[in-house]
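Retro notes
What went well: the complex prediction finally ran end to end.
Inputs used:
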Amino acid sequence: MSEAALGRFYIDGEVVARQGEVGECLYVVQDGEVEIVREDGDAAVVLRSARRNELLGEMAIFEHRPRSATIRAKGRARVLTLDKRNFLRRINEDPSLAFRMIETMSRRVRELSDQVVELEHALAVVLREREGESAESVTSRVRG
Amino acid sequence: MGAPTVDASVDRALDDAVLDDAVLGDGSRIAVIGGGPAGSFFTYFLLEMADRIDTHLEVDIYEPRQFAQPGPTGCNMCGGIVSETLVQNLAVDGVFLASDTVQRGIDSYQLHTDVGSVRIAVPNDEMRIGAVHRGAGPRDVSEPKWISFDDRLLSNAVERGARVVHARVEEVGRTPDGRPTLTVKGGEPATYDLVVVATGVNTSILKTFEALGIGYERPKLTKTLIREYRLGQAAIDEHLGTSMHVFLLNIPKLEFAALIPKGDYVTMCMLGDDLDAALGDAFATAPEVRSVMPPDWDPDAKSCQCLPHINVHGVEKPFADRVVFIGDSGVTRLYKDGIGAAYRTAKAAARTALFEGVSEAAFRKHYLPVCRHIQSDNSIGQVAFVLTRVAQRLRLLRHVILAIARDEQEGGRRPRLSGVLWDMFSGSAPYSDIFARMVHPALVVRGVLAMPGAVLRTFRGAGGVEEVKA
């Protein structure tokens, strides 16, 4: 990993952005890998990881809410910071800058939908094995 | 250069009915003259946007140079700075600038004057500016370690589906139905639905367009001086680090000068009136410059030198029916961030061509406002640079600048001046924004308060290096 490249170096486990902080910027991974972690008390669940050229923290652009997860380096990583205020000004001048962000968010909605379906199936299998219910009734019960 | 195949009277005779089909659709053919950043950005974004709307376009990029070739034949003659704004825009656009192309990330600026120096760093200690070579490097490079910036961007355009024609366009004309034609040496005229001129200003093809009678007049130019010095990576790390070094020196005819550290080379970049090698030597031997470079550095041992022109007043009408001028051949930012201006005009032209059409009316309505915005900002930039020139001439003002910067650092005050200096040197903000902050009452008050101390220092003499956060 080059010392001279763009962005800032983070060592393994170093926090790029912390859950609960108000997001004032978004990030693009330049090198290495980061993971997105949801913290709940002492427990931490790794939601996913992101590699080179991936855009992160984009929800901060659209919401005035605390960050929903922590971004931390997995191994050595280099990450570029993009200022929210400047970025919004640039989108105002050039709306096409939002294309990739919308694509990213669209892909994540799709991935989350797939995960919901997978979890429903997994849950249905567990409940069916325990209680002998039909798959349809379990699915119906899970969806409320 | 040959004469246009259809003269101006025929061009004017083209009526609206002929141009009703002046939109791009499946199979439309586009020629881009020049494979530098403007041409590559245009092609990349045009093809990306066309792909989003399932439209297949054919793009030919005419570029006679091989950017992978070291020396002048593969170089587009420029300081080679990718601004903070452009780095961020490209990151969002998904155009990745890898460490095989960015030779050195820049995290700070050092302003050097005869009365001291100030280091202005970005928040977060982050490398936000990229130092690159436009070609494969100076003429004494035997095996390039880094990929040429222009070559990287051109490769991106090719990966999107463009074809590169390694030939120089020698004739420009129009068919009877108003479509532009291009002819290369020994070739037949090729007809296109749109011609994009992205040549920069150091070329004679612009004269041909001027003679075409389409209302295009070449931009006003000034000269720059660019030199490359081979110091080696270790020496650059030790002496120049990851800072761009900017000099406010009272040398006659010199407006602005900077040393830009790259991988193995340092690029010396100068702006001014009647620049020549002698002025370059006067700057290179100035004590402030010698103090930044290694002690055993020889100012005469340059690897390359060029005196290219830059656009200092863009064209009034950078478009015509089925022709658009982007980057330096049209409108660019004054003195700074020329690559960023190439990006902005290229994207605006691509959006217009694909979604609004390629007629003169479409470019006037949708492309011209972007150019005018840059031009009007340049007018404010002229005033901002006058203030810089005053600082260059007045030792007292240089003391005031350093005093305020010191105060901002030690007092933990809002970095008003540091931010102004950062944006002025890096080209990261519009000149209108910089100027508004430059004359902000709070900064003016700081200036007045710093004056008595500056007067004392002017008569006593002072120096040193201070660090401030932008």
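What we learned: Chain B touches chain A through 32 residues (CB under 8 Å).
What to try next: split runs per interface for comparison.
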